[in-house]
Design goal:
- This protein is of the alpha+beta class.
- It has 7 helices and 11 strands.
- It has a 5-stranded mixed sheet.
- It is globular and about 55 Å long.
- It binds a DNA duplex (16 and 16 nucleotides) through loops.
Length: 274
DNA sequence: TTAAATTCCTGTAAGC
DNA sequence: TGCTTACAGGAATTTA
């Protein structure tokens, strides 16, 4: 599923191809994928717009149009945003197509439809509760270990649940929560508030390392994730724990345990993570 | 305010 | 082989 590294890969790939392009047409074959504003208004507003920027905030893709207006894409679990030639066969579950002035098409495909498209200024989307208030970007150089410690310290829920909370830290999902906790040798189910400053610093480092490495390797295609060209990532074969329940820990050889935290499958090593 | 449970959705795989 | 059932999970929503 697309988390920060996967979204970052798509954004970096799309940016040079989208900036400067004008949207000439928009087709919605499944209009309810647009959550704000009304689909007809969305189409009318987007057509004729020039793309000024392509960025990311957490797991959200922000396509900058005029002034502060953004076309926002959240991929949910199975969302794919692809830039294709118009001759490319239309895949099933393609819910939206943006036609560009260079003839290319930006297609949104999403079998499980957990994703969404939005249009508005960031403030308006926040006010309309269409986008949540997000925590800091974990790979931002400004994001310090102390900041992570403070955010963990005030919480009385599982450590992993806080990592998954987008209001606490933006962009971390199930894969990189498990990966960074293993690397930091911390149990996912311990109460976040009991984590020491020293442990928080270790988690801070492993979290950033896990995310950066995944970006370098163009993300993890563990489910249906594909980049903007339809290609799989390279991180899925390098994951330490995610998806490896019952298999031996690479560090100690003990079979990895699986539990559920915050409704998510959680894989960890009982020996290495304490 | 916070935390936990529920819901949305379909492809895939396990089990009978 | 073919059917049913369980499962995957990001985040909005509901409940506690």
């Amino acid at each position: 599923m697309p988390e920060l590294p996967e979204v970052e890969t798509i954004v970096a790939d799309l940016r040079p191809h989208l900036v400067g392009r004008t949207i000439t047409r928009c087709e919605l074959s499944f209009p309810t994928i647009v959550r704000h504003p009304e689909p007809e208004v969305f189409i009318d507003s987007v057509v004729g717009m020039r793309i000024e920027s392509v960025g990311r905030r957490g797991k959200y893709i922000l396509i900058g149009l005029v002034e502060d207006l953004f076309l926002v894409v959240h991929l949910g679990m199975t969302g794919q945003l692809r830039l294709v030639d118009p001759v490319a066969p239309l895949e099933n579950h393609t819910h939206a197509v943006l036609f560009l002035d260079d003839g290319k098409q930006l297609r949104y495909r999403d079998p499980r439809r957990f994703g969404r498209l939005l249009l508005g200024t960031q403030q308006a989307l926040l006010d309309a509760k269409k986008m949540p208030r997000l925590g800091p970007e974990p790979i931002d150089p400004e994001f310090a270990a102390d900041e992570l410690y403070r955010r963990l310290h005030k919480r009385r829920t599982a450590l992993k649940a806080v990592l998954l909370d987008q209001a606490a830290i933006a962009g971390v999902g199930n894969i990189y929560a498990d990966e960074s906790l293993h690397k930091a040798r911390l149990r996912p189910d311990r109460i976040a508030g009991t984590v020491s400053k020293k442990s928080a610093a270790r988690l801070h480092e492993s979290l950033r390392e896990s995310l950066q490495t995944a970006i370098t390797n163009r993300g993890s295609s563990v489910d249906t994730y594909r980049d903007a060209w339809g290609e799989i990532g390279g991180q899925q074969d390098r994951l330490l724990v995610y998806g490896r329940a019952g298999e031996p820990c690479f560090t100690c050889g003990r079979p990895l345990s699986v539990i559920r935290i915050a409704g998510r499958t959680t894989v960890f090593c009982r020996r290495c993570q304490r």
